[in-house]
Amino acid sequence: SVDFSTFTKQTGHTSLDYGFVNTASTKSAITYIDGDQGILRYRGYPIEQLAQHSTYLEVAWLLIYGELPTADELAGWDEKIRRHTLLHEDLKHFFSALPHTAHPMSVLSAATAALSTYYEGQSDPHNPEHVELNTIRMLAKLPVIAAYAHKKSIGHAFLYPDNSLSFVDNFLKLNFGNNAEPYEINPVMSRALERLLILHEDHEQNASTSTVRLVGSTGANQFSSISAGINALYGPLHGGANEAVLDMLARIRDSGESVQRFVERVKNKEDGVKLMGFGHRVYKNYDPRAKLVKESADEVLRELGVEDPLLALANELEEIALNDDYFKERRLYPNVDFYTGVIYKAMGFPTRMFTPLFAIGRLPGWLAHWREMQNDPQTKIGRPQQLYTGATERDYPVSR
Ligand code: ACO
């Protein structure tokens, strides 16, 4: 095998590559993407098959350990994750110190970083038992934290996790249940959310995963690395796009502006306005996840009995953009986030919870990449070069 790091050092060249458009930062065996063909596979399995047949936790195991689990392995892992859902009671007080207006993504990243304070002495990146335990802790506790961020924002009491429920049903209950009455699981909602989470589980070296790897490369523990990844995901050009799409659709509806006029403003780059949920660094023909989400959107809204004019608006926007030369020439197509918001909204999630939902979805991928990086003997601290463009040497003016 080629030692790429030695090779780079020997050539003595530095390449300037804004946005790492052409630069690989690592080798990875987790996820395969062919952006021209619209192919996405986790550990070799096509995303379409996993979304149809698998579950969030099964795919999480696949990403992290490389193979599908046996029935016993999956049952044992599911059981362990259920047993780790409780948060330390003191951590619950952490939420009261934050304003109810706090964005749930800020709460999620802060609480994830705070989690590590409860596991001092148990977070050594080089101790396989610690790594295993903290993988399970994060898969179990981050959904609870996200749900508490939601409850806090609407002034509702937190619920204890219900460990008799599956991962997804527990999450739905934590978000939408209350302490006064039993919570009835809606199977349509449950399956739709499971599917959306699976579609988000990994996407190779995207901005947040690269952040997790970069932070992890310094020897930082899993909690610190994942917390950094959550912050990277928060941005509107990355995970924050799902929230931005709904805001954009609502603004178009409320302004009374025609969709065509909005598209013209995007094309003229007026005030830097973009068609959120369109375009992707890697997919230049179509995003296979977007295709699956779009299929779900119609179906889920119909089955939940929700009529949302924003879905019609999204369809109109897509139709106009796909037939417009500006978007065709730049190969801009709907990405995974274009239709997810419409589904999350139909389920009852407020807009600000959309990106935390993405974070819960992406968590297994972050964990898998963090672990792959730790186990790769070629890993070294991430430290890009720069091309210096500042002043040449000059003397400090002593007589100033
Ligand atoms: N609306 C309008 N124009 C766009 C859009 C868009 N959504 N995306 C790209 N363009 C234009 C750019 O202005 C640029 O035009 P130019 O050549 O006239 O200057 C051209 O298309 C190329 O775009 P880049 O920004 O160079 O493409 P890049 O690969 O760097 O960016 C990105 C990809 C960030 C996803 C971009 O398409 C974007 O901002 N999309 C909107 C935000 C979004 O939906 N993000 C979610 C991405 S998916 C995810 O993270 C899960």
Automatic annotation (TrEMBL):
Pfam family, one: Citrate_synt
Chain segments carrying region Disordered: 379-400
Keywords noted in UniProt: Acyltransferase, Transferase, Tricarboxylic acid cycle
Reactions it catalyzes: oxaloacetate + acetyl-CoA + H2O = citrate + CoA + H(+)
Keyword RNA-binding: no
Single GO term (MF): citrate synthase activity
Highest taxon of source: Bacteria
InterPro entries reported in the protein's UniProt record: Citrate_synth-like_lrg_a-sub, Citrate_synth-like_sm_a-sub, Citrate_synthase, Citrate_synthase_AS, Citrate_synthase_bac-typ, Citrate_synthase_sf, Citrate_synthase_typ-I
Pathway(s) of this molecule: Carbohydrate metabolism; tricarboxylic acid cycle; isocitrate from oxaloacetate: step 1/2
Family: Belongs to the citrate synthase family.
PANTHER family registered for this protein in UniProt: CITRATE SYNTHASE (PTHR42871:SF1)
Protein name: Citrate synthase
Lineage of producing organism: Bacteria, Bacillati, Actinomycetota, Actinomycetes, Micrococcales
